[in-house]
Amino acid sequence: MSDIAVIDLKEKIIGDNEKEADVLRAELTKKGTYYINLMSSPGSGKTSTLLNILKRLPKDLKTAVMEADIDSDVDAVTLEKEGFTAVQLHTGGMCHLSSDMSRQGLQALPDQKFDAVFLENVGNLVCPAEFDTGAHLNMSILSVTEGDDKPLKYPLMFTICPVVIINKIDAISAFNFDMEKAIRNIHSKNSSAVVFPVSARTGEGFDLLTEFLTEKIKDNSFYRDEG
Length: 227
What we know:
Elements: H1 9-31, E1 34-39, H2 46-56, E2 63-69, H3 74-81, E3 86-90, H4 99-108, E4 116-120, H5 127-130, E5 137-143, H6 150-153, H7 155-159, E6 163-167, H8 179-189, E7 194-197, H9 206-221
Parallel strand pairs: 1-4, 1-5, 2-3, 2-4, 5-6, 6-7
């Protein structure tokens, strides 16, 4: 029988991160800032989805976006050209954002009083799902180009996301994608998940999604501590 101690480093790292995430979430709630973490695989349309949402949110809501990538500033530049506040976060090769990285990004924003901050997480269906960023809401995007079986192959991502966006519905006829099956697969991992089929190209479906998010953001503003 070996007396060598075995420490599960991943379990400890994730546990420590969750504690830090809870603290960050409470701080943001007190400030009246609603933090939304958007996750998906590369190429599913995260940035174009965010642009559609931002353009439809009420003008009285102050918003910002944190763009997380291993490298480049392409997405942040795209958002700034459209007139939105954005900061680019480089993860240095890491495939996810942690709560501490979120805090660093939030502190880098030019103004600390936002009604909502969106995080475009690193394109990946695995690692980002394992780390709590401190967000109030996790959202994932499933593109019709990826197939309707992705919730079965990457269950944790869809388990932790109460909101799932099915993007690129304008191209559904070109792919072997079954919308009803996709929704069943999502609900098999999270029975209460709200699903929004949209097209970032045509704008279809975004009014309902934006109304849903607006209500969440405005509900959170009641917690703002003006002191």
